[in-house]
Amino acid sequence: MKKKTREIKLDQLCDERSFLSFCNDDQRGNHGKRLGMETTHDFLVACEKDGFIIPLLTRTEARMVDEKEAQVEVKYYSPFQIFLVTELCKNVIDEDGYLRDLVLMDADYQKQQKTRYINWGGHMAFNIDNGKTESGNPPNMISHFTLMKNFHNFLRLLHTFDTFDNTRNDDYVRRRLYRSAPKLQFDFKELSADLLSEYDTNTDKIKTIFKIVGNIALSIDPLEEWFNYVHRHEIMRKDELKGLAGAAQELYNFCDVLREVVETVDGKKLPPFLEFVKSDFGYHDREKMNKFAEGEDIVAIKKANEHLIEWLTKNKEFIDGVFAKHPEWEKVDFLDLANKTRITLDDFHTRYGDIRYVGAYRTMYPSDKKVEEGEVAG
After folding, report:
1. CB–CB of 227/274 below 8 Å?
2. How far is it, in rounded angstroms, from Cα 102 to Cα 125?
3. Cα(117)–Cα(130) distance, rounded to whole angstroms?
4. Per-residue pLDDT tens for 255-313?
5. pTM for the whole thing?
6. Residue 152 region, left (φ>0) first, then alpha (ψ -120 to 50), else beta?
7. pLDDT tens per residue, range 200-238
8. CA within 20 to 30 Å of 199's CA: 44, 301, 345, 354, which one?
9. 305 exposed, middle or buried (CB, 10 Å; 0-12, 13-18, 19+)?
């Protein structure tokens, strides 16, 4: 039986002009400032020469050229290819029209060696003449060339799915503030491991993309320290972020799509974002694993515990009745545990105040307390 051909949804893509605008401009009108440098037509041409950023669709259309209608070739990109723009934007375009790193690698050295180096994310560079294979790499690493091939394979599949945007099935908290923003709510009911295989991908490859995209997002995000706080807000609020914070948010949004794909196919949840993306890579010099549930602050935890105590008190007879029907169960005094938790939380709040927990460390400030006021161990 012949497999059904899946068509890419044109309304999910951007033509070159729209894609450049998406990479350069904030939704609120700050032009050319999103990544700190302007992405141009020549940049996209140079990227395509090396196979780094490839249009997902090319077709002939009627467009106005010099005030006359003409048939022209139009290239369409996925807005999620902003990931590759972010990784490659620190390169210059050399006299031959190719990308070249002049930040980390000396230009004279490259000419002497008759080679080119490509800046990747601003923190490293790789040789364009390296064998485009994964030989010699650690098991959890892949070559940049393989990464970009896997990335484009996934996008070619992703954009064949319908989206829930502006339908009765869309999720309000994932709605976009601006019409031109990338759609994020895909209908994955047809998604399966076999379908991934048809596009030469699988959940392991997608998880690797997830980790790499997540790490570059953290590295450019000026609000990285506040990740847990920002991430719990609805998409429309985060759509108001500007500059690199807004660009990082688009990458986080893409990571949410990647997470949904993996969890749909594998049938199990992935770890929280920070824990997952840092499991293989060490781009940052300090860990900020989330130790509290979803980055909640102490006041919110205290309030939740008070609601729990109120419910347990109100439903004490019901709870006792449940245990009475099941004498084989070990009886647990949930109300007593909640009251003990209240004491612990009140003590924490008295000591530290209204602390918003957004990382695994606390900034230390000079204390006005005297030594004799402290606790004595013993």
Report:
1. yes
2. 10
3. 10
4. 999 999 999 999 999 998 888 888 775 444 444 444 443 445 778 888 889 999 999 99
5. 0.71
6. alpha
7. 999 999 999 999 999 999 999 999 988 888 888 888 888
8. 44
9. middle
Q: How far is 273 from 311, CA to CA, in rounded Å? A: 32
68 - beta bridge partners?
65
Q: Which two structure tokens, joined as six digits, stand for 30?
A: 């700050």
Instruction: Return the exposure string of 260-296: e unless at least 16 CB atoms fall within 10 Å of the residue's CB, then b.
Output: bbbeebeeeebeebbebbbeeeeeeeeebebeeeebb
Q: Which residue has the tokens 């294979």?
A: 133
How far is Cα 177 from Cα 28, in angstroms, rounded to an integer? 11
Tokens of 141: 């690493």
Secondary structure in 3-state letters for the chain:
CCCCCCCCCHHHCEEHHHHHHHHHCCCCCCCCCCCCCCCCHHHHHHHHHCCCCCCCEEEEEEEEECCEEEEEEEEEECHHHHHHHHHHCCCEECCCCCEECCCCCCHHHHHHHCCCEEEECCCEEEECCCCCCCCCCCCCCCCHHHHHHHHHHHHHHHCCCCECCCCCCCCHHHCCCCCCCCCCCECCCCCCHHHHHHCCCCHHHHHHHHHHHHHHHHHHCCCHHHHHHHHCCCHHHHCCCCHHHHHHHHHHHHHHHHHHHHHHHHCCCCCCHHHHHCCCCCCCCCCCCCCCHHHCCHHHHHHHHHHHHHHHHHCHHHHHHHHHHCCCCCCCCHHHHHHHHHHHHHHHHHHHCCCCCCCCCCCCCCCCCCHHHCCCCC
The token duo for 319 is 């709870």
Q: How far apart are CA 106 and CA 273, in angstroms?
A: 36
Q: 362 vs 204, 287, 365, CA distance in Å?
A: 35, 12, 9
- CA 55, CA 252: separation in Å to the nearest integer? 22
For β-strands 92-93 and 99-100, DSSP reports them as: antiparallel
Q: Closest Cα to residue 253, out of 173, 320, 192, 197?
A: 173
Q: What is the CA radius of gyration of the chain?
A: 26
- Contacts of residue 142, defined as CB under 8 A and 6 or more positions apart, other chains included, come to 134, 150, 208
